[in-house]
Amino acid sequence: MAKNPLDMPKRHWVLAVMSLIAASFLLDALWIPVKAELAQHLLERSWLRTLAGEPDAKPWPWADTRAVAILEVPRLGLREIVLEGSSGRNLAFGPTLLNTTQLDQSADRILSGHRDTHFSFLKELQTGDLVRLRTVKEIRDYRVSWQEAVDSRTQQLVIDDSVERLTLLTCYPFNATTAGGPLRWVVTALPES
Amino acid sequence: MSNHTRSTDNNRPGQHRSIRDELEKRAWVQNPDLANRLNNRLEGGKRHYDGSRRIMRWQDRILLTLGFALLVLLVIRAETAIGDDQVWGLQLNNDSGVYTELAINTGIQLDITGLVSRVEITQSFTNHGSHWAEGIYRFPLPEGAAVDRMRIKVGERVLEGEIQEKETARQTYQNARDAGQTATIVEQQRRNQFETRLANIGPGESIEITIAYLQNVSYSDFSYHLRLPMTFTPRWEPGQQTAGGQLNTTLQTPYLIPSFSSNGHGLTLQANLVSAVEFAAIESRYHDVDIRQVENGYQIELLNPDEISDRDFVLSWTPTLQSHPSVSLTTFNDGDSVYAQLMLAPPLADSISPQAREIILIIDTSGSMEGASLDQARAALLHALNSLGPDDYFNLLQFNSETERLFDQSITVTPTSLYNAQNFISRLKANGGTNMAPALKMALEMPEIPKLMRQVVFITDGAVGNEAELLQKVAQNLGKSRMFTVAIGHAPNSWFMRKTAEIGRGSFVHIAKPDEVETQMSALWGRIQLPALTDICVNWGDTAEYFPEVIPDLYAGEPLWLLARLPAEPTMIGLCGELNDRNWELNVNGWDAASSGAGGDNLAKLWARKKIEALEDGLMFGADPELTQLEITGLALDYGLLTRYTSMVAVDRTPRRDGGESLAVSEIPGLLPTGSSAQLAGYPSTATGWVAQLILSVFVLLLATCMLLFSGSRLPMTPIIAKT
Q1: Nearest-CA distance from B61 to chain A in Å?
Q2: Which of B501, B556, B506 shows the shortest CA–CA distance to B531?
């Protein structure tokens, strides 16, 4: 029986197409942490420009956000650049400031980040850990004082500038398979002095 | 050999050449001994492939699995995309998906007699929508309020609510709700947070719910005060520490909106202040009111007809004071027991001579106090040092894992001792554990200074684990000393601090922020430097159950209020104490007791409320939770009180909503307090789900590759009976 190369079984075609789709999903999935990491490097340079006094240093020309602070957790050796505005797009690039006013004028600061990229460290954070926030104007030290899970369907975030604190937010549980769950992990840190 | 015959039953009409057929053919070509192998394999059970009853072959199964996995991947991807754009904010639970428009207005009727105030809150739910509705409304009541009555008004019918065990009440409500009957339930969610649910409000209809409770009038700075909370302050209240990662679902913050987006929340209020004597002053702190003097007291009404419930209502009135402690006794006999209320009013501040005291300041310097807390504690200590009088004695103690004292025993206030103390304070460092017991023991067992009252001021955040044990220590070693607690920081262990003060016969203040040090410490000092009547004892007779169990001292500006349940009418109640260093005694003749009149069972209900509070406190001392729940439920049902284990439920038996019509559920928001700097926001979506996507796509890829690799050289897809 003569072998015809075009006579390849149909099943192989289906398999090939599926593999292609799966491969694209694979790349798509990998792109998320890669983008998260890469963006931080690009942001590093725009942060230096911000520190140098450039008023609106965009990390890349088409960006609609900017670096506003550096978040550090010395015990975990963590250092991340915080972006302004907690939109889904910004969250892909770094932890974001859920802001109603400028960072330097607010006392009650709320940062949110993805539980599976930038804020995956929240599960290792312990009560009493030092969390440092470097803004353009100051370096502020906070200590983690409360950690709790809340249900975003029945609870609201309270932004109260009469209280000085730093809140770190991420999705919960940490190892849930799919995104979009209702629970959030809330870490509250109070200023050192 | 060249022509392998295929089993005939594989021939199907139409002769579709499937991939399977194709692969199969190739397998036959490539594996000449296939027939033998197959025969061996099929020895066990001869499954014949039948065109009409197709059995799925393993390649198909894998293909299907792959297809399914790809579908799941797509869903994950789509959900992540939705997550990104999700609108933030609260979702109302609306099980029929119908938009409802419910509004709520509140009317309050206050009747104040003596130290007890009867409050009736009428919530009227109006359904502006075109569907049947169920409304949920969370509202505040003062802590310790004895909620004892509820009624519902549907059209012209008025139905009284009844108290039921919480789960039973829920069931009653749920059944009525589902049967289309108008029903309502009131539950306690936290000490000061309650929830009303009202089911089956017809389109365009208004239904009124009236909730009645008893509340004690408070007394401070020589005036009576009554505070009616109207809304919640959205402030940071940490829940249970969820180290294990469990969700604390009982903690539900009420849903609040700013007043400009409200359609309702109107407030009307009318108060009757019953009094035979004239008051020096009557004042409403946050509302404009009209005050009229009537025959048996005063009538107070809100001036503004468009008032909304966005701030608390506070009423204060000032009586004319006497220069010696005054006592009043009220009793109520319900046939079984006698309930007695004893009020001890302090004399005027001018008539109390300040006494020299021994002050021992204890400061917690454990690790948890590091930072802002220690700074506030230092400021509080310096404030205390500056407030010492010339005849006072003082000492300073600090503790973490170790306890250290400044002087071996308390010494007089001199420039040198003050200098040493300031030095001691500036050297304080927060470090180490919280070993509180030795410090308490050292302070309480220090040699006494003759004739001086010892006041221990204890400054801490109360981060301890052995509360019950510590409280027992205080109770055992207290002697003639008094404990005053100063809680530091945003989230101190308030319960422990308040309890320590209660058992230590002192009082408790909380300093949350640095700028509160001055006001709170001044308040504490103002209170404790003028003890009017100390070491108070009350001899009720046998088997009296009274609250508070430990009677604090009587200070200027703070009366004492005791409630007791006695087996029979008291004939004589003996009071004793120390007034200005002399023994003080007073016998109150039971015959002189005022009868509490029409609303008499109020005393019984207030007493039961105190007893329930004491039982709830017992939980912290290791009382059995189930037993406590039983006891509280029993008391609550006996006295008709709403508690965390019992709810009020009322049902109008007439079915109104047809089973076919849907019921839309919505939570009616409360109002943000006026002037609140706080804003509310929803939680952003904070997960990408990339790990799951990665794992799943790797799985699909691997499986597909495996199939590609093996399908060519393995078994055919069809069990075949080869004819060789």
Answers
A1: 12
A2: B556
- Tens digit of each residue's pLDDT (9 = 90 or more) over A154-168: 667 777 776 788 999
**What residue spans define the domains of chain B?**
356-528
Strand extents, DSSP E, A18-162: 67-73, 78-84, 96-97, 108-112, 130-135, 139-151, 157-159
DSSP string, B553-620: PEETTB-EEEEEEESS--SEEEEEEEETTEEEEEEEEGGGPEE--TTTHHHHHHHHHHHHHHHHHHGG
Q: For chain B, say whether A85 makes contact (Cβ under 8 Å).
A: no
Amino acid at B6: R
* Residues in chain A within 8 Å Cβ distance of B687: 114-116, 170-171, 176, 179-181
pTM over 0.90: no
Residue A156 in any domain: the answer is yes
Mark yes or no for CB contact B66/A169 under 8 Å: no
A180 occurs within a structural domain: yes
Q: What is the number of structural domains in chain A? A: 1
A155·B252 Cβ contact <8 A: yes
| Cα separation of the two ends of chain B | 9
Domain assignment present for A121: yes
pLDDT, chain B, mean: 79
* pLDDT, position B14: 47
Residues of A in contact with B29 (CB under 8 A): 1
Asked if A82 contacts A97 with a C-beta cutoff of 8 angstroms, the reply is yes
Q: How far apart are the C-alpha atoms of A152 and B637, rounded to whole Å?
A: 35
Q: Does A106 touch chain B (CB under 8 A)?
A: no
Residue A3 forms part of a structural domain: no
Interchain contact A160–B (C-beta under 8 A): yes
Spatial CB neighbours of B406, under 8 Å, sequence gap ≥ 6: B395, B396, B397, B420, B421, B424
Nearest-Cα distance to chain A for B182, in Å, is: 25
Residue B708 to residue A177, Cβ atoms within 8 A: no
Using CB atoms, pick whichever of A19, A117, A159 lies closest to residue B679. A159
Confidence of residue B608 (pLDDT cuts 50, 70, 90): very high
CB within 8 Å of chain B, chain A residues 45-84: none
User: pLDDT tens for residues B559-571?
Assistant: 788 899 988 877 7
Question: For the structural domain made of B356-528, what CATH number should be given?
Answer: 3.40.50.410
